[in-house]
Amino acid sequence: MATAPALDLKEEILRLKKERNAVILAHNYQVGPIQDLADYVGDSLGLAYRAQETDADVIAFCGVHFMAETAKILNPNKTVVLPDKDAGCSLEQACPADKLEAYLKENADKNYYVIAYINCSAGVKALCDVICTSGNAPRIVEQAPADRPILFVPDANLGAWVIEQTGRKMDLWQGSCYVHVEFTRESIQKIKDEYPDATVVAHPECTTAVRLLADEVCSTEKMIHFCKTTPAKNVIVVTESGMLHRIKKEVPEKNLIAGPTDHCACADCRYMKMNTLEKLHDCLKNLEPKVELPEDIRAKAEVSLVRMLEQSK
């Protein structure tokens, strides 16, 4: 598939964006060149609000599949495109809708109040009472009915952290983000020993052992505020590597150190990094790959998503 010459690629993307009346949304984990071109860069909660608010005809969602689905759920009459249709998520894969549906039927007597981390498919969102993100999960859980047991899906690490924050008992689906579980206590301690004056900020998708080493555990969006306000010059950032690009732009005075895993010096999500400027150009040009959802699934998922947005205000 032909693309614009490399030197003109950014200019061509901006031209197509204007021609299509499109908005470009990018997650914090996207590659730097995409973040630099986007109309909005943020975490899942911020992107959900932008998707809900946009008056654009086309939403080019530079993230992974469940995020583009979220935009489509909130904008059924808009065209939503994803640069690479295969940009998935290990958390989404960990909780297929059919397995969750079967589990809920088998445990119907428990009358679960189901809270789903936004990193899940539209089919799972349609089965849930409310959605949450890493940024608002404690707040959402605190508003759950006191007379119903909670089932938290699909991230067990995030769920465990929320239990610590809220004191609410929850049953946890045993899913995990393959990137964040690669961080280990040993790998983070090693870099702390090298930079004894450094402060550590970690994402709640990390394991308990890693979270215990952190000075702050928070969503990617809140990492920006932490890096701006911490007196420490050196900051060890324990999340996907794309986050470093945005923090470096907004907090250039800090020395950011990528949290190492046992397998590499930094943590790249292979799904997030599937999107490129070339693919962004092509999806704006061809309006493909397009995100489509069955209306019954979309409508049910919208209820749980809108409930999250209302409970997060």
Question: What is the element layout, followed by pairings?
Answer:
Layout: H1 9-20, E1 22-27, H2 32-37, E2 40-42, H3 44-53, E3 58-62, H4 65-74, E4 79-81, H5 90-94, H6 97-106, E5 113-117, H7 122-127, E6 130-132, H8 137-142, E7 150-153, H9 156-166, E8 170-172, H10 185-194, E9 199-202, H11 208-211, E10 216-217, H12 220-229, E11 234-238, H13 242-250, E12 255-258, H14 277-286, H15 295-311
Parallel strand pairs: 1-2, 1-3, 3-4, 5-6, 5-7, 7-8, 9-10, 9-11, 11-12
Helix pairs in contact: 1-14, 3-4, 4-15, 12-13
How does this structure look, described?
- This protein is α/β, with parallel strands linked by helices and 313 residues long.
- The protein has 15 helices and twelve strands.
- It has a four-stranded parallel β-sheet with strand order 2-1-3-4, with helices on both faces. It has a four-stranded parallel β-sheet with strand order 6-5-7-8.
- Helix 7 links the parallel strand 5 and strand 6.
- Helix 3 runs parallel beside helix 4, helix 4 crosses helix 15 and helix 12 runs parallel beside helix 13.
- It is globular, with a radius of gyration of 19 Å.
- The termini are far apart.
- The mean pLDDT is 94.
